[in-house]
Amino acid sequence: MRLRKGLRVCLFCLAAVTVLIMAVACSPSSEGDTTTAAPPTVKQPILEQDPPSGETGELETESGTESGNTEEETANGNDELETPAGNRNGSAGQLYALTFEDMMKMDEALNHEMNYIAVDLSEMTQLTEDDKTYIIEYLQGFGAEIRDRTLDQLVEEENPDQSSPSLKGVLLRVDKVEINEDSAQIEGSKYRSGTGAIGVKITLKLQKGAWKLSDSEMTWIS
Fold first, then answer.
1. CA distance 222 to 216
2. How far apart are CA 189 and CA 168, in angstroms?
3. Which of 19, 48, 123, 214 is the most exposed place for a label (fewest CB within 10 A)?
4. Where is composition skewed (Acidic residues) in this entry (predicted)?
């Protein structure tokens, strides 16, 4: 009896062990292999990095080139805007430029089919080269060639044998000047021929540092 009871116990234990082995064998390999499982992936923050030194140098070079071109273009633009005469407000150049302009507007019949406007600056020793340049450039607004000539020079160039010279243009000349602290009175003439000329008297005022035309009249006609 005891032998049979012990045999049964052994069989029962063997069956239990067999069941346990089969259960372990049938379980998924991923669940059993805990040592080789990869850890879950953790998303790391992205850190900003400086560009390579070579790229940085190229950017700086390009920026420097663009800046240099901009400065050069600005300078060229400034050169194009400047004139040799510059700002002549209150100068003798501005005074006589306005005087000659007013002469040209008097007796405009003398301007008919003129080829040029001549100004006699030979006796006006107070004028600088900048003043003369300003006068000539200012009178170009009349759309004619501007010459610095005396009457004798014009006659010699055009009709040296004429007894009563007649010009192909008009000659503007200053004969008398009176300048005060803030005003000026100028007498002169506008000449086209012996029978086509006028005398003028022009008054100008100095206002806020610039000459302004105040009054003008014809004093004689031929």
1. 18
2. 17
3. 48
4. 57-82
The CA-CA-CA angle for residues 58, 62, 64, to 5°, reads 115
CB-based contact 220:196 (threshold 8 Å): no
What would the two tokens of residue 150 be?
Answer: 């005396």
Which residues share a beta bridge with 212?
205
The three-class DSSP label of residue 166 is: strand
Please report the sign of the dihedral spanned by the C-alpha atoms of residue 76, residue 81, residue 86, residue 87.
negative
pLDDT tens string 22-70: 655 555 544 444 444 444 444 444 444 454 444 444 444 344 444 444 4
Give CA–CA dist 114/173, Å, rounded. Answer: 17
| Cα Dmax for the chain | 178
Domains of the chain: residue spans and CATH: 92-221 (3.10.450)
Kindly state the DSSP code that residue 37 receives in the 8-state scheme: P
Query: What is the rounded CA–CA span in Å between residue 4 and residue 94?
Result: 145
- Residue-wise over 85-119: b if at least 16 C-beta within 10 A, else e? beebeebbbbbbbbbbbbbbebbeebbeebebbbb
C-beta of residue 189 within 8 angstroms of C-beta of residue 197: yes
pTM of the model: 0.61
